Structures are given as structure tokens and as C-alpha cells.
């Protein structure tokens, strides 16, 4: 978890709410939590009494800060309220692609690393190492830690056996366009709520672009080269007001995951899960070329493609699950969770 902190800011930005007032309980540089933030155990400790971190994201956002402990009040679903001591990233230097647009106070660490919220709560015996979220296309939604959702209602696929230290990665998947094979396979995908958009590797992206341009032919759509919102946009006969006005012109995109050559788990992206309407009233593709931002061959499923789905990351069982859901309604649970 990372929040905009109150100390002297090297790159000061305005947040929706007052800045977080940090405690003085710094995490030492050689602490196990600090070590988990680095690629190897052989890292520099210029300031032994504090843990410095730097995080960079696919959308070119970055955060520089220190790790510290603080006490938080958590409300459990069984009615119990506990004060829990956890580590927090206190950011004092943030860089945004668009410095004028800063709609958040901070970020939650929802990955698989030791510093993530679920890992810390699990290490204290409070919840299972399971995290889930449901993002509403209307805005809002909910997030939960522990067993909340009925596992029988979800489609599951194993996490990748590759060593991704901090990320929830599913693989390998085959790409389907409109229910037909695209010829693109062996895709490993990171599910990341820290990214607004979805990213494909260069080859998958180019195949997708070719398919979309072919599909848009003969339809009342024309490429809008003057719209710089995203790399590929189309305009209609009149400005679009909602993505639902154009969904009839586009087909679903599916990631089909295999497990030991057996049944396939299909992650379906309907048109509203990969398209947006720009301020100019055009429809734009919310899937970008990850190779252009240094992601190499990795693929990333961002917020846009997880809307109106409950997503569950079971780090104990090494499984990723999903199902269509009404993200405006928080489910009731018989299990102890947050």
C-alpha cells in the first residue's frame, strides 16, 4: 500500500484528500519486508534505519518513498474490529504522465509480494491469502481480503509457474477474436488494477489491430487520426455518447487459458471491456502495445477489461478466478474476511 505523504515533497501534487501524516516507525533497510522489494538480497543500504523504495508502472507513473509501520483499524465481516500493525509505503516524490490529472490519494498493494496487504494480514493469521475485487463500469465497486466469494460460481485458471515475484500472472492463453482462433498463443497475462488500460505484446497487438481494421470495414466507422486520446480511434456519423452505442460494431475478445491440456477457462472481454468513448465523441481502443513501454513479451490485463467482473486471486491455491457480477452489490459472506 502506498499513500501520498506529508514530508517535504520533491514533486508536490494535489490529492483529493489531505496528505497522510506518517508515523516515525520506519522499516529498517535490512528488514525482510524491505528485502522483498528488491530483485536480490544484495542491495545497497545507504540509510540503514530506513527502507527506500522506487516503484515504476507500465503507464509511466512512478513513486519514490520510504516504507514504515503504522496501525490501522480493520472491520471484519464477523463484526470484529481490530487494530492491526502493517507496513505502508509513504511516497514523497511522484511522477505522472499528466501532472494535472491526479484523481487518487495512493495505491493498494494487491500483488503476491510480502509487502502486499493480504500477505501481511495472512502472516498475522487474520485471513487467508486471498484477495478479490469487483470494479463497476458505473464507477465504484468493492474489494475484499479473505474468502468472500463462492468459489463454485467462478471460472478458475492456475497462476503461471514462472517466477513472477509480485504479480498475479495467468498463462498460457490463446487469443480468440469473435470466437475464432487468431493464431496467437502462449500468452502470459498479468492482472493489474494499477493500470487503466490493457496491454498486449507487439505481435498480439499487431494481429489485433489488423483484425479490428478488417472488422470495421463496411461499417459506419472511420479512423479518427486527429483524436490523440489513444493510438487508434474511430468516429461515427455523429459523436458517440456511450460505448453501448458502438458495441454492435465490435465482437468479443477472449483469452482462452489451458490447464494441463484439459478444460479451457475463457476470460471474455466484451466491446465495453476494451473500448472507451473519448471527449471528442469517438470510440478508441483501450488495448495498447506493451512492447512500446518496455513490457517485452508480457501482457497486462488492466482495469478496463475487468469491469463488471468479480476477480479473485487465491495465492494459497495459486489460482485466479473470475465471473460476471453486479459490482454495485457487496456479497454476504459466511467466512471471516475484510
So what's the overall shape? globular
* Poorly predicted parts: 1-12
The CATH architecture classification of the largest domain is Beta Barrel
Strand content: 25-35%
Q: Let me know the largest β-sheet.
A: 6 strands, mixed
Query: How many DSSP E strands?
Result: 22
GO molecular function: aspartic-type endopeptidase activity
Domain Peptidase A1: 1-323
Protein name: Peptidase A1 domain-containing protein
Pfam families: TAXi_C, TAXi_N
Task: Explain what this protein looks like in three dimensions.
- With 338 residues, the protein is mainly beta.
- 8% of the residues lie in helices and 34% in strands.
- It is built from three helices and 22 strands.
Give a brief outline of the structure:
With 338 residues, this protein is mostly beta strands. The chain contains 3 helices and 22 strands.
Describe the secondary-structure layout.
Elements: E1 2-4, H1 32-35, E2 51-56, E3 62-75, E4 81-95, E5 106-107, H2 117-123, E6 130-135, E7 141-145, E8 155-158, E9 169-177, E10 180-181, E11 187-191, E12 198-200, H3 202-216, E13 222-223, E14 233-235, E15 253-258, E16 264-269, E17 275-277, E18 283-285, E19 287-289, E20 299-301, E21 309-314, E22 319-324
Parallel strand pairs: 1-4, 11-20, 12-19
Antiparallel strand pairs: 1-5, 2-3, 3-4, 6-7, 6-21, 8-22, 9-10, 9-11, 9-15, 13-14, 14-18, 15-16, 17-18, 21-22
Pfam family, one: TAXi_C
Protein name: Peptidase A1 domain-containing protein
Domain Peptidase A1: 1-323
